Amino acid sequence: MIIENQPYLTDTRVKAEAAALLEAGWRVRVICPDLSLGEREGRTFSDRYSEIDGIHVHSYRMAFASSGMLGYLKEYLFSLFHIARLSLKAFREDGFSVVHLCNPPDVLFIIGAFYKLLGRKVIFDHHDLFPEMILSRYNGLQQRILFHLSRILEYLTFRTADAVLSTNQSYLRVAVGRGRMSEGDVFIVRNGPRANETIPRLPEPTLKRGFPYMACYAGIMGPEDGVREFMHVIRHIVHQKKRTDILFCLLGDGAARSEAKEFAQAWGLQSYVDMPGMILDRALFFRYLATADLMLAPELSNPLNDKSTFIKVAEYMAVGKPVAAYDLAETRYTAGEAAVYVPSGNMEAYAEAIVELLDDPKQRALMGNIGIERIRTRFQWEHQKGGLLSAYDRVMRLG
Questions:
Q1: Are 328 and 306 contacting, i.e. CB atoms less than 8 angstroms apart?
Q2: Do 182 and 107 share a domain, yes or no?
């Protein structure tokens, strides 16, 4: 399993997939970046091997690009080199039957194509729509050039794959349409929390830092995740609506985190915003969620978000918390009546929805119960892993 855009410990989808494969009898190796390795004693390569719950994890030193075409190009080339190096090492030591590629970006097909020439099977785990990501991040001539390039890379990735894992129906339609994949080779595997993570948890009042209410965001803070824009919502609530009784706890890390912190400082919001970073301890992570009164899904409408399913929404629902979200098709499909929806970009309406929900404990409890039931009966990981195992059975039957 190859991940380029985040460490294994923070990728809850890959962790769930790896555990399911291990349980089904597969030996699983993961190659991924690790931001904590850094430079050590001037060494060119700074790798780490660890075994985590039976999964063999090979990490390489990585610093993600924050922005700019040259920065991303450097990141991708650097990653390809180290992934190729570590995969060859694993191939010589143990060999493997399947290469499981996780995007973005869509340059990993180069690794998959090499091993496919050696008779190995390739599964494409379609995490994000790379062309739509380009449309969401860039403008003008740069956007047009990168978009057409990304469409070529996406097509080559699909053509390399023996099977595709799609996170929802929107992604399946892309695989069958743009990717020219047979529907029999595309398997929907939605993002959902595992059953052992959805057990009731007691809140930890100290996490509220003395505030009566806490609204919480938990996830990656990339350019398209809406965290920077959400700072305007917080400013409206604190300064216009004069609500100083709410702590906004923003869990996670990414390219947008530093800019969001700068906004908080510039607008005098530091007392009302807690940004502790990425919480790798899953027990602590779910204690934060259990303590919150309301969860936040501030992703704005754009070509990428309009078709994407966010695992954070399912995790929010799993602990029985209501969600305030912009009205996106796949978010509505997952959350149903467990969320309140406002038109994308209407920050005043978003602020009003947050305040109204916090002032209505009965409505919050009702929505929370709806969320728990939807996860338990439809979106829990145990309902999804069958698609993963079917994809593996499919490629192994291809001979």
A1: yes
A2: yes
